[in-house]
Amino acid sequence: MKRTLLGTSILATILVATSYFAGQEPAVANAAAPSGDVSVGSGFRLLRLAIPADGRVGDILRKNAAISGGFDVIDRRSIPSALVRGKGFDKKAWADIGAETVVLADEVGGQFKFRLYDIASGDRPVLARGYAASDPLKAANRFMNDIIEHYTKIPGVFGSRIAFVRTTRSPTVSKNVYTVEMNGEAPSSITSNRSLNILPSIGPGGQVLFTSYAKRNPDLWMGGGQLKRISTQSGLNLGGTMSPDGGTIALTLTKDGNSEIYTIDSSGTIKARLTNNKAIDGSPSWNSGGNQLAFVSNRAGGPQVFRMSANGSGATRVTKQGSYNQSPDWNHGEGDRGNLIAYSGRDSSNRYDVFSINLRGGKINRITQNPGRNLDPTWSPDGRMIAFQSSQGGIYVANEQGNNQIQIIKAGSTPDWGPRSK
pTM here? Predict the structure, then answer.
């Protein structure tokens, strides 16, 4: 969906010298605060949800409910044993322990039978589904998506995957690309070598683009099956991101000596050069329609977020507050969410946090206000959640306002959230 930054005028030189690696914190200099119309998200009341199911399916349901941000999940250990063991639904007994909604799950005939009860709606389930018991993770994900759709009319995104980079330092520093489900389950490696594999981005079909030094030059590769080298131009082939229809890849190339944004096809053939500026341009991120790109440029001095049409015309500056704004990710959600671009910015105290800006009116929302550095935001496929990297430890997911932050990966950097699972 997007890929991370350029930042300073020396980055290209550093990368070519292979002394830079993804996940490095930006240098702090010349601090300037985002100011003006900036708001911080506020909380709201959560529905008290009880899920008495045991085993893996129960654990995943409770974990997903907590991550969803819509429920106050009742500790299973506090539920009376009679309710945990009970086969039917006792509305009064559940109401007596403060539950407002209840999920019951039974394994019958090779299926998990799920029922969602709403205390205010009576004794009958408001939602009932059955999924194969052979895959508890998939079954729990699908039912949680059903629950979210029941309440919001939009399916949840459990089962979607986040790509990220994990660093190891023995025997030498290496970086490899992984993907993991958005709840931190089912990690899978895309690369497993002693090279530097950085800046992953997941395409609409689940393909993972990344830049790798495996052949010494920083080339663009594609994973998700057999690894394939896509772009091998001399210099940087950096931060590839695939258009929503999968037909075009935007990336940064330095083949002509300066950092510019190009588009290529899946075979690596150059389709167009989108920027032609003495400044450093990079970090392209597509909008949901595939007709615009956000990107980072230092043409205004320090790095700022710009946008342009998909043919490179009409470049305009988006962020006008703060002197160091980077890593844009364009929200692909419906309605006004499609006008939001998330990015990481530096405030007056030299701290990096995640912000979003609404292209209609320019209102800025401060999504994180946490200790440490919070970088590389990436929206969920429905635009209602966000993941980011924190120097406090790994990768977190939160709701779109930055509330309900939950760590899903203890050690990881440069996350990119892929499409809904099929």
Answer: 0.90
